[in-house]
Amino acid sequence: MKEWVKMGVDKIYLICGEADGTMAIPNGENMVEVARRLFDEPDAVKRGLEQSANNAIESGKRQIDAGAECLTMCADYCFNSGPFLSPPMFAEFVTPYLHKVIEAHKANGAYTIKHTDGDIMPILDQLVSCGPNALHSLDPQAGVDIAEVKRLVGDKVCLAGNVNCGLMQTGTDEEVLQNIIYSITHGKPGGAYIFCTSNVAFKGMPLERYLLMLELRQKYGRYDVASS
Q: Which residues have C-beta within 8 Å of that of residue 51, sequence separation ≥ 6?
């Protein structure tokens, strides 16, 4: 990875890896069993979570040693209707391990970006308390409002995302334009905002839509360095 940094003379690249290890939403095949174990075997679950966190730290260290400058952490915790775990259960089964992994990644020399889709508002304070450098995706499809998140925690963590992937795919040009400008307008003040989509660009999204996003970023997303 270290050799990749030498790519391009006039461009800056951020080399990213991925290492999370915390408990994400279970899949449809094991969700009932996971829910049962949380109540019937909490200590065994925690032993597994501790090992998973240690594995993520080791994996992250290998990636950092290979040249990764940033580690994304992509365990999803939330549906559009809210977190899979209640806030008290999240505090018991996720937050301690998330904090441990983030602190280790940072101590090993990497930035951290914590990603989760869905409605994060009930656990926003816990996510921020774990100390990630940035928080993604600020999912507008789950009703997460970047203006409100900026007001609540914009001085504590860099925000990333909020451009609605669904609208980018199926919305009108006017809806896309309004959403992009809204994200920039409310994410940009004071810095600590990474302008990007709330998830990956969906397969089949018209290229013109992505180019429109880049055009609007160029028009509205630049800081006036001379006046700052």
A: none
Q: How confident is the model at residue 7 (pLDDT cuts 50, 70, 90)?
A: low
List CB contacts of 165: < 8 A, sequence separation 6 or more: 141, 197, 198, 199, 200, 201, 202, 205
d(CA 174, CA 153): 29
The secondary structure of the chain as a DSSP string is: -GGGGGS-SS-----EEE---S--PPPTTTHHHHHHHHHH-HHHHHHHHHHHHHHHHHHHHHHHHTT--EEEE----EETTEESS-HHHHHHHTHHHHHHHHHHHHHTT-EEEEE--S--GGGHHHHHHT--SEEEE--GGGT--HHHHHHHHTTTSEEEE-B-HHHHHHS-HHHHHHHHHHHHHHHSTTS-EE--BSSPPPTT--HHHHHHHHHHHHHHS---GGG-
User: What tens digit of pLDDT does each residue of 137-190 get?
Assistant: 999 999 999 999 999 999 999 999 999 999 998 999 899 999 999 999 999 999
Token pair in block for residue 207 = 């290229």
Given a contact cutoff of 8 angstroms between Cβ atoms, the answer to whether 45 and 92 are in contact is no
Contact 67, 7 (CB under 8 A): no
Is-above-0.85 flag for pTM? yes
